Amino acid sequence: NTSRLVGKTVLITGASSGIGAATAILFAKGGSNLILLARRADALKAVADAATEAHKASGVQGGGKIATVQLDVSDRAQVAGLWEKVPKDLRDVDVLVNNAGFVHGVERVGEINASDIESMFATNVFGLIAMTQLIVKDMKARNTGHIINIGSVAGREPYVGGSIYCATKHAVRAFTGSLMRELVDTQIRVSEIQPGMVETEFSVVRFRGDKSAADKVYEGITPLTGEDIAEEIVWVASRPPHVNLAEVFVLPTNQA
Ligand code: NDP
């Protein structure tokens, strides 16, 4: 039952592709309003158009308002200036999906350059924290809301070649758990979705554009899709207010 999401405002970071884009479209289908954030304005616009179409086609009454904001979550000043770019009637965020994230490559510790290390932490960890700080203040004032962070299997199980990415996703899991406990006396829910392998742009970026190396990882495995994870996110967000799915760990059936 996703009727609880009709007319709710959902802010999604990293909404220009992959999991974020699929999530935007699914929330739109269910009658939510959207604030969509990412750095690529054109890709974001295409997702917003697809979400508008999905909302229209669903026939659901309510929702359907969409704002797009070109924004780099790793830039604190841009995050602080967010409300200047969002229409007034969309400023009460009911659901924050902290999804923006990336991985630079699969590399041994000695080979990773400093700027890649810093930019992974800047987006996956500091960006997620900055967005949370901005939104949680308002959620606390209204004593309602739901923060859904996108972690990873890499936040549970480290792998060779993923030291920095795994460290960022372990940090996300620790931050999420602390925040959930901190807000235990409020009506604000905090959840983390931890996907295994999902085939998105990320899969190829991880191998610095080498598609055949990226495909090799999926040998014998049918990877998850952005839509699979979007379904989990919408499911988590649409539970009754007293139910918090704190952690959802989602693997492809053949991923160990
Ligand atoms: P994509 O590369 O398709 O999507 C990443 C999104 O994040 C894009 O919309 C990108 O948009 C945005 N983004 C990246 N950096 C920034 C930034 N600094 N500021 C704002 N937006 C940013 O990959 P996925 O959909 O796969 O990844 C989404 C999340 O899922 C990430 O957190 C990833 O770590 C996580 N995840 C992915 C898995 C996978 O196998 N694919 C597995 C487990 C977790 P733009 O470039 O326009 O800014």
UniProtKB/TrEMBL annotation:
Query: Which Gene Ontology molecular-function terms are recorded?
Result: oxidoreductase activity, acting on the CH-OH group of donors, NAD or NADP as acceptor
Q: Which spans of this chain does the record mark as coiled coil?
A: none
What PROSITE patterns does this protein map onto?
ADH_SHORT
Keywords from UniProt, A to Z, are: NADP, Oxidoreductase
From which domain of life does this come? Eukaryota
Provide the family line: Belongs to the short-chain dehydrogenases/reductases (SDR) family.
Q: What is this protein called?
A: NAD(P)-binding protein
Q: Which organism is it from?
A: Jaapia argillacea MUCL 33604
